[in-house]
Amino acid sequence: VQLVESGGGSVQAGGSLRLSCEVSGDKISNWCMGWFRQAPGLERQDVARMRTGSITYTDSVKGRYTISRGDAKNAVTLQMDNLKPEDSGMYYCAADPRGGYCYPTATFFKDWGQGTQVTVS
Questions:
Q1: Per the CB 3.0–4.6 Å rule, which of 19, 46, 58, 117 could disulfide with 7?
Q2: Can you list the residues of the chain whose pLDDT is less than 70?
Q3: What's the angle, vertex CA 103, arms to CA 17 and CA 26, rounded to 5?
Q4: How far apart are CA 66 and CA 56, in angstroms?
């Protein structure tokens, strides 16, 4: 399975970005899909997770971020609005095929993308 992120960039505070994660090699129809953020010197942290019928956000992004299936069914997007400087970091897409609870920890996820940089000034 290969995950490829796109859509990162630099934006001023209050602006928006839309990240996309395209998955190849398997169908992700009921996989746990997540987005993680990693700032320099810090651990990779959960931002948003989804599985069919369930979506979860970390508290700091609730009301500003939206995770959803992409226009291509084997993709996941992360719409980020009203961005803040503390949202900056490398954003990674993650996927796991197992059923059950979708855990908010990096160690739970099996497959990862290469990351896309988001900088908010």
A1: 19
A2: 71-72
A3: 70
A4: 10
